[in-house]
Amino acid sequence: PIAEALLAKGAQLGVVLAFMMGVTTLSLPSLIMLSKAIKPKLMALFIGVCAVGIIIVGYFFNAIAPLII
Predict the structure, then answer these.
(1) DSSP 11
(2) Is-contact 12 62, C-beta < 8 A?
(3) C-alpha R_g of the chain
(4) What is the number of other CB atoms lying within 10 angstroms of the CB of residue 14?
(5) I need a surface site. Which of 14, 21, 22, 66 has the fewest CB within 10 A?
(6) How far apart are CA 53 and CA 69, in angstroms?
(7) DSSP letter at 9?
(8) Which 8-state DSSP code applies to residue 38?
């Protein structure tokens, strides 16, 4: 429902996908649970890799959106 509303309001596809991925991957509850299982250095690496990956996916889908929509 949130993604549909954002798209209906004119948000770009890549922005919506990046937002939805970021909300689930980098949410505070999931990071708290994950921090109990892994070391802080690995946690920082996880957050960095996920953030960069989400940004890349957002830019990629913004670039190809005219071709698929």
Answers:
(1) -
(2) yes
(3) 14
(4) 19
(5) 66
(6) 23
(7) T
(8) S
Between CA 10 and CA 4 the distance in angstroms is: 10
Can you give the residue range of the structural domain that contains 62? 2-68
pLDDT digits (tens, 9 = 90+) for 1-54: 899 999 999 999 999 999 999 999 999 999 999 999 999 999 999 999 999 999
* Number of folded domains that form the chain: 1
In 10 A of CB 61, how many CB atoms? Answer: 17
Tokens of 68: 């698929």
Cα–Cα dist 29/38, whole Å: 15
Other C-beta atoms lying within 10 Å of the C-beta of residue 10: 6
User: What integer pLDDT is reported at residue 69 of this predicted model?
Assistant: 76
Q: What is the pTM of this model?
A: 0.87
